[in-house]
Design brief:
The structure holds two protein chains of two kinds. By secondary structure, chain A is mainly beta. Chain A has one helix at about 25-30; strands spanning about 5, 10-15, 15-20, 40-45, 60-65. Classes of the chains: A mainly beta, B alpha+beta.
């Protein structure tokens, strides 16, 4: 499944990342070195029914374990 | 209480490892309020397993008191004990997420200071320490690292404040009081879209 993952990335599946095509070949090769990893998002300050229905704003970090 | 989101295709919940644990009070095994605190405060601990790598992942999720810094310091000290225990027993990364109701700097930053190792923890309940006992050689300097500080500057959002108090147009009182912290035992690193930092240091 392909879904937007960030401004500069397309998420293609478990641990496979490609940058947008405008990046240079060198940069793409750096990114592809991540393919063996798995990324998770950890959030804080979100409400039950959506992240903005709160007087707290969401906190995200992209993590690899 | 803060929320932890994950995709079921990536993480499986290890059902035998979940508990809404101890109150952040001097009697942590009873539902109780720290003297002078505004509310009952607790921590939920859950352990997950990666569907792809089978690696374990432990999340501590908490909400510290909004009135009393002494309660926040006590709760932070309990979290430090529990985090070290989870790091030692799970052999995997440990993360602490939560609304600390206090900023990382200033006179009421005790919770952040204790969890990140900048100030020493307070003495906690003896039974709690016994239940979550770790040997002296198991991560003796365990603390939590602020993932914001671990992220390269160009990858950090410009808007740092997390608490708005329903005042989107008046930003004066906004504070950074919600945190995502990672255990100093590592086995994790911040993933950045273009660049991957290889700070994964093996746990002892």
């Amino acid at each position: 499944m392909v879904r937007a993952f960030s401004d500069l990335e397309v998420y293609l599946g478990e641990g496979v990342y490609l940058t947008w095509l405008w990046l240079t070949t060198a940069r793409v090769s750096v990114c592809l070195s991540c393919r063996a990893s798995t990324a998770f998002k950890v959030g804080a300050g979100m409400s039950d029914d959506g992240m903005m229905h709160s007087d707290h704003r969401p906190v995200f970090v992209d993590l690899t374990i | 209480m803060t929320h932890f989101g994950f995709r079921k295709s990536s993480l499986a919940h290890a059902h035998r490892h979940k508990d809404t644990h101890e109150s952040h009070s001097p009697t942590p095994f009873q539902v109780s309020v720290y003297p002078g605190a505004g509310c009952k405060r607790i921590c939920t601990t859950a352990r997950f397993v990666s569907q792809t790598s089978s690696k374990p992942l432990t999340i501590l999720n908490t909400h510290l008191d909004h009135l009393l810094d002494e309660q926040r310091k006590y709760g932070a000290s309990l979290l430090l004990v529990r985090g070290r225990y989870e790091a030692a027993t799970s052999k995997g990364p440990v993360f602490l997420t939560g609304d600390f109701n206090s900023p990382p700097t200033g006179g009421d930053s005790g919770a952040y200071g204790i969890t990140t190792g900048n100030i020493p923890p307070v003495r906690v309940d003896k039974k709690f320490k016994e239940k979550y006992h770790t040997e002296k050689d198991q991560f003796p300097d365990f603390k939590f690292l602020d993932t914001r500080a671990e992220t390269p500057r160009f990858g950090v959002s410009e808007n740092f404040a997390t608490f708005t108090g329903w005042s989107p147009k008046v930003t004066k009182g906004w504070l950074r009081i919600d945190f995502v912290l990672g255990g100093s035992c590592r086995r994790w690193c911040v993933h950045f879209p273009i660049w991957r930092y290889t700070w994964e240091r093996e746990c002892i």
